[in-house]
Structures are given as structure tokens and as C-alpha cells.
Design goal:
144 residues, mainly alpha, globular, disordered N terminus
Length: 144
């Protein structure tokens, strides 16, 4: 009977020794899983689309139509000519507004207009403006 206890204790000590050898592997194996779980929650928020209804309210309440026109198509003959925003790519609008906020684009007016906007406000504006019908799809192709 003593031999059985000794064997059990001996085999238990061996299994503990084996599990210790594998301990560094288990945390490393969990890292990709934890990273994937974190990204699954973070990425949708980072790439979430804006709210077009809120974007329309922002466009109207911030006076954007004064330069860019009521439907995002600026009036011809303005000096300088504000860009047409209707139908513009969302990513372009988002990038441009962030660049105005950072002072990477030179426009005193637009820097002031973009300064109070949150990231969500910018996404909302981009969602609204990109959905508007505009002449950008009818421009001639390069070289024509």
C-alpha cells in the first residue's frame, strides 16, 4: 500500500512538473484570442457609419450652406470657390475636417467651423453629405 501512495505521489509530482513546463505556452496561446476579442469590440466602433439625420442637422445649424449651398453644391462664382460636398466620399470629408481641425489645411473659416466638431459629428456630416446627389459623378474623366 505504501508503494501505491508513493507511485501516486510520484506521478502527481510528474504531472505538476509537466504542467509547469507548459505554463509559458498557455498565456502565449491566449494572447491572440484576447487580441481578437478586443478587436471585435473596438473595430466596429472605429469604423461605425455616421448618422445622416444628425449630419443634416449639423450642416443646417452650423451654417455650412452659406458657402457650400443648401444641398452641398456650392454656388458658382463665389470667390474663392468652396468645394462641392454633395456626393463626396465619406473618407475624404472625414480626413478634410480632421485636417482643418489640426491646422494641416489652410482656411481660417474652415478651421473655425471644424474646431468644435467631435469625431462622431464629423462621421455624421460625412454620412449625410456623401448620400446627397451631386455633380461629382458627372464630371468628365481625366484626359477628356
Amino acid at each position: 500500500m505504501c508503494k501505491k501512495i508513493t507511485l501516486a505521489a510520484h506521478s502527481a509530482s510528474r504531472s505538476v512538473g509537466r504542467s509547469r513546463a507548459h505554463i509559458p505556452v498557455r498565456p502565449l496561446a491566449a494572447v491572440p484570442l484576447a487580441l481578437a476579442a478586443a478587436l471585435a469590440f473596438a473595430l466596429p466602433a472605429a469604423f461605425a457609419d455616421g448618422n445622416a439625420d444628425n449630419g443634416k442637422q449639423l450642416f443646417e445649424s452650423h451654417g455650412c450652406a452659406g458657402c457650400h449651398g443648401g444641398k452641398g453644391v456650392s454656388n458658382k462664382g463665389q470667390d474663392p470657390q468652396p468645394p462641392i460636398l454633395a456626393g463626396q466620399y465619406k473618407d475624404y470629408i472625414i480626413q478634410a475636417l480632421h485636417e482643418y481641425q489640426k491646422g494641416e489645411r489652410n482656411s481660417v473659416v474652415m478651421k473655425g467651423m471644424a474646431a468644435p466638431l467631435s469625431d462622431q459629428d464629423i462621421k455624421d456630416l460625412a454620412e449625410y453629405l456623401s448620400a446627397l446627389p451631386g455633380p461629382l459623378g458627372t464630371l468628365p474623366k481625366g484626359g477628356n
